[in-house]
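Whether sequence alone determines local backbone shape is best considered at the level of individual chains. When preparing material for the folding task, we compiled for one chain both its residues and its backbone structure tokens. No coordinates are needed to read the tokens, only the vocabulary itself. For completeness, the protein is quoted in full, as a sequence line and a line of structure tokens:
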Amino acid sequence: MNPIVNKIKTLNVLLVILVSVLLLSFHTYLVYFINSSFLSGFLSSTQMAAVYIVGAIVNIAMFLLVPRYLRKRGNFKLIVMLTAIEMAVLFGIASITWAPAILLFFIIQQGVSPIIFYCLDIFLEQSTEENYMGSIRGMYLTMYNLSPIITPVIVGLILATSTEYWKIYLMSALFLIPFLLIILLNFRKFKDPEYPKIDIQKTITHFLNSKNVYDVFIDHFLLSIFYCWMVIYMPIYLIQSIGFNWEQVGIILSIALLPFVIFQIPIGKIEDIKHDEKMVLIFGFLIMAFSVALIPFITEKSLVLWSVILFISRIGASIVEVSTETYFFKHVKSTNAGYISLFRMTKNMSFLIVPIIAGITTYIVGMEYSWIVLAIIMLVGVRYTTKLS
């Protein structure tokens, strides 16, 4: 095929994937920040933690089964099936009031949603050259992180006058309709790579013995812990401990998430040129640790002050996110579905662990000083980053 024609086709596929991840991100972040507040309306903190843990277990089990399904059915059929399930579950949450059914739907949604992003990873990997991995990952993550800037404001406006969470879950489901249409129109003839048969035990053993891949996996897992801790406990902390309302929290979160749009494309381009993810990662973890450690000492109900401190924390997180993604996918290809599954499991592994760690630390030192524990955990990332080569 003519190289120019081939390049145009690759760019078209990339554009389709970027639009797809934007729609999927809107769907995700509309409910991402409200899930804990929604569940706290009819569950105790212990029960809510248990629901998150069960959802995480379901997701991990699904990730372990995904490679086998990919070999039999392919990525296109998998993403279509999961998107349909996700839509049905969200419509269910939006339309019923029976708590047991809502909890079941919530657990299914926790299990399914991350795997849809995993399927997009495979589409993206098949159309990406390694030399441009940092730039493309930067664009991909920027599109993914556009919606968190907007959705907290939308959510805050909806919840400012009433607690009609169903409207948000319905809106989230509606974003999946154009997403599914794009997938159906553009990837029906997708040619799957050859997914090797995966022995889970051997995959984990090889993964643990792959020094660089394992260390960057730990870094990404620590980042997931940061996200999970923030998404579950920060809205509750700002409302219950500081005294903000949902409209104010929405504004704070929107400002705080701007670094993901501002920094990730430039950082990705720099890493393509300099190939020095290691130093960038250390810098990112130090910023996260320092900013989170300040949280217990900020007691003033100042929208500006809280926006600034959370903005700084997300500068570090945005740096760590694009750097871990770039480093990992420079060392792992789409054919290694087992490694990618483990990498993408970090999100729900964090939802398995954080409720336990945060619950214990909150019980011992209170929610106010539990943030110090999170800061110390972020410093662990520096240790593992120094081991990268």
Q: What stands out?
A: The chain has 17 helices and no strands. The chain has a mean pLDDT of 84. The longest helix spans residues 346-385.
